[in-house]
Queue: 2 jobs
Job 1
Amino acid sequence: MTESPVEDSISAAAPLVVLSKVNKHYGALHVLQDIDLEIRQGEVVVLIGPSGSGKSTLCRTINRLETIDSGRITIDGHPLPAEGRELARLRTEVGMVFQNFNLFAHKTVLENVVMGQVKVRKVIRSHAEKTARELLDRVGVGAQADKYPAQLSGGQQQRVAIARALAMKPKVMLFDEPTSALDPEMVNEVLEVMRQLAADGMTMVVVTHEMGFARSAANRVLFMADGRIVEQNTPDAFFTAPRSDRAKDFLSKILHH
Amino acid sequence: MSPFNRTATASVLYDAPGPRARARYRVFGVLSLIGVAGLLWFVYATLDDKGQFNPALWDVFQYNTVQQRIVDGLLATLEAFGLAAAFSLTLGALLAAGQLSDHKPVRWACTAVVQFFRAMPLLILIVALYYAFFATDPMWALVLGLTLYNGSVQAEIIRSGVNAVPRGQGEAAYALGMRKTQVMASILVPQAVRSMLPSMISQLVVTLKDTSLGFIITYHELLFVGKAIASQPTNSAGFPYIPVVLVIGPIYIALCLLLTALARWIEARGRRGANRRTSTAA
C-alpha cells in the first residue's frame, strides 16, 4: 500500500492542535487521563469509543467549552487562552458542530450564518450575507435561507450548523456526534457534507458512531475508553486488525449485529 | 404532528367522558347554574335592601366636574403606571444581568437587592418613601415604590427565563467567538423575553392595579378620586359607594384587558416560526 500525496503532505505539516498531558475530573470521575494528541494541518481524526469514554469531553476541551484541570493545549502554536477577548478570538478559529445542532431558534437560517461574521468578525453585512448564501448553497440548503430552524428537518439543521461554523473561516472544525440526533435517513446528507469538507483539506476532529464515515474519510482513528486513548491507527488497520482487547470488544459489539 | 399533539394533550389532562359521565356533567352544570344565579340574586337583594340601586345615587356622575375628576384620576393612574412600568422593566433587566454576572460581588449585591425588595410589602415601601423623601410629591413615592418592588420581581422573571434557554444556545454562540455581553444581548435575552412575556405582562397588570395604593399617600389617582366621590353625600340617598365601584372597577378591568391584548399581539408577532418545535429535541 503506497501513501497518497495527500497523506504525505499531512505527515509533513506542522501540528495544528496539540494536547499534552491533559487531565480532567468530574468530581471523582477521572474523565480525561493524560491525553497526548497531535493533530496536523489537513488531518481528519475520528474519535470513537463507548459512551462515557471521554471522547465528547476531549472534543469540547479544544475550544474550551470544557476546562481542563492540568496539561496544555495549543492551537497553531499558541496556548489556549483561559478567558476574555483572546479566548473569544481563538474560538473563531475553531468551528464547532453540536449533536443537537443548537441553531439560534429565534433567527432565520440566513441570520444564523450571518450573525457570527457580523458580530465577531466585523464583516460588512452585505458581504456576510453573500458568504452565507454561498455556504448554504454549498451544503445544499440555500432554498431554506429565510426559514426558521424549527421549520427544517434535522439533517437540514445540521447542515446549516456546519455552514454557520464555516462562515467564521475556522482553521479546524470540531464535530461532536453530529449525526447522533438525526433520523437514520438524514445521516448520509450530513456525512456527505463532511466528506466533502475533508476532501477540501479541512482539519477535522470528529466524534462519531458512524464507522462507515470513519473508514472512508478519516486519516486516523482514535479509540478511547475510560478517559484514555487506548489505540490509534489508520482506519484500515484499526478496523481490520485492532490491537487492544477493549477495541476488539467494542468493534465486535458494533460491527456484528 | 399537530393533531397527534392535540389528542395527546387532551388525554393527558383528562379522559374523554363516556355517556354516564356526560349525564353527570349535565347535572353538575344545571346545579352550578342554579347556584351562581342564587348568589347573584343574593348580592342584588342585599344591595337593593341598602338602597344602592336608588337612581338618585347615580346623579353624581352627571356633573361635569365629577366626570372631569374621573378622567384626571385615570390620567394620574396611567402616568404612575407608565413610569413604573418603564422603570421596573429597566431595573429588572439590570438586576437580572447583575444576578447572572460572572463576578461574585455583583451577583451577591443584585441578589440581595432583589430578595429585599421582593419580600418587602409594597405598601410599607410606598408609605416609607412618602414620609421619608416625597411628602410633597406623592407620585414619586408611588412610582419609586412600584419600581423597586416590581423591578425585583421582573428581574427574577428575566433571570429564570435566561436560565431556561437551552444550554446549547449559549454554547453555540460562545463557540462562534461571541463575548458574554453579545451572547446575552443577541441570543439569550431575546429568547428569554419571548418565553417569559406572559409572566412579565402579568406582573405589569399587578403593577397597574397596585397604582391604586397611591390613594393612601394622597396621590390623586383613580381610586383616590373614586373614594372622594363616594364619600360625599350628594343627596338624601346617602353615599354612592356601589355606583362608584361599578364605574371605577370596569375602568381597571378595561385597562388590564388592554394590556393582555397587547401582550397577545406581541406574542403572536414574536412567534413567527421560532420555537414551534424545540430545536433541541434529541
Job 2
Amino acid sequence: MDSQATVSQADIERLSDKDKADLRQVLAKEEQRNFVQQQSHTFTEICWKKCITSNIKSNVLDSSEGNCLANCVERFFDVTITTQKHLSAMRNQAGH
Amino acid sequence: MDSESVKKAIIRQVIMEANVQNSRHLVEKINETCFDKCIAKPGSSISNGEKTCATQCMEKYMAAWNLVNQTYMRRVQQEINSGTFSS
C-alpha cells in the first residue's frame, strides 16, 4: 500500500456537493479514456494481424507497416459507420 | 480527510487502477502476439534468436498500440467535429 491514506466510507460521506459533482465529471472522462484504450487494444490486435505479416527484424515499425496500421484503423472506423448506417436503413425499411 | 483531499485520493486511485489494468492488458496481448510470431516451433529451450525476436516484437507492438491509439483518437475527434455522432 502506498503512503497516502486510503478512502473509507466515512470519507466518502464527507464529500461536499461540489466535490461530488467534480468527481462525477472526472469519472465520466476517465470512463471514456478507458473505453478508447480498450478499443485501441482491439484494433491493435486486428490491425497487427493485417499489417505485420513478415518476420520481426526490428523493434520499430517501418513506414509501410505504420501506414498500414493507420489505414487499418481508419477503414475499420469506416466499416463501423457504414454498418451502422445500413442497419438503420434496413430498420426503416422493415418499419414500412 | 477533508472533502478536497478525499476527492483527490479517489481520482488518484481510479486513474492508477485504470493504468494498471491497461498495462496488464497490453502485456497479455504482447505475450500472445509475440509468442505466436517468434516461437514458430517450440524447442527444448528458448534460443537467442527467439529472445531477440521477442524483445523486438514487444517494442514494436507497443509502437503499434501507440499509433493505433493516436489514429483512433484523431478519427473520433474528426467524427465529433463533423457531427457523425450527434444525430
